[in-house]
Amino acid sequence: MGKFLINLCMLLLFSGLCGQEMPQPSYHLEKPSGPQVDSILASVNGEPISLLDVIYESSYSEARLYAVYSSSDIFQEIQKLRKRILDEIIDRKLILLEYNANKPFEVPRQYVENLIDELAMNFGCTNRAELVVKAKEAGTTVEELREKARIQVINQIMISNYIYTVVNLTPREIHEYYKKNVKEFSSAPQVRLQLLLVRHDREDFKRIKAELTDAFKNADGKIFTGMVRLYSSGPGAMRGGDLGWIEYAELRPEFAKAVKGRKTGEIVGPIDTDEGIYFLRINERKGAVKAEFSRMIPEIKGKIEDERRKKAYDAYIAKLRKKSVIRYFF
Known about the structure:
Elements: H1 2-18, E1 40-44, E2 47-50, H2 51-65, H3 71-102, H4 109-122, H5 128-137, H6 142-162, H7 171-180, E3 190-199, H8 205-215, H9 221-231, E4 242-247, H10 253-259, E5 267-272, E6 276-286, H11 293-322, E7 326-328
Antiparallel strand pairs: 1-2, 1-7, 3-4, 3-6, 5-6
Helix pairs in contact: 1-4, 1-6, 2-3, 3-6, 4-6, 7-11
């Protein structure tokens, strides 16, 4: 449970600390009459969930959507993503309510403290005092972070102890699953990109376009990252515009054409689109990999187990939803 739990908590706690820095790319796409960042999207037994709560968890995935969808489709895709994240937040609240109603176990304090220590290390803090300062700069406290960590520990233990079951599989079941899902266990060629967007409606658009075009003729990764933080209106600007790994087949056509045949480390652009111009830096590449059955057995078993456990999880959540009052305000 440890590694998964730490990753889950780090996602939520990190977003809390970094919320002041992270740009929210979708604001440019929302209609003027649409919801504000503090709008209430839903409630669980009267407890509200705001748009900001959702954005904290969806911002990184939203950034990736910019490399896949054009401006005409991205608004709808972001709305789908946020709805999925909202439902996940609701599910976690339902599990917490179930725990509070029955208190089936004591929350291991050491698990919570381990998460706080892991958080401190990831932010380069050598002690708790430094984490206190970091938290204060972000408008929160270590106690608030500790409570978030405690809630995540509760959720994961509830899931592990009361939802997940042991799955016994036969060799035949494993092989049949592999044959039906062979493509799932092979990876297509992928690329890792950084993205910088300059929108057409920017007042100094022409000047910035010319300056960046010239600067990127001989720029390295550090320069590109710095320029993204200074000038980009795109997703993840404070993270240097890193989009993570994306399959070539998923790239929007303009990007796929621009990076085709270019070398790792190259900066391509400007790429003209409806919303503005993009510059892309090709950070890394991965070739296609065809998986052999014998080497994939552990992963296949994991996939089957995950599917069966998800089925049990969904049934559990459906039961909790039936006895709760959930309202959506959109």
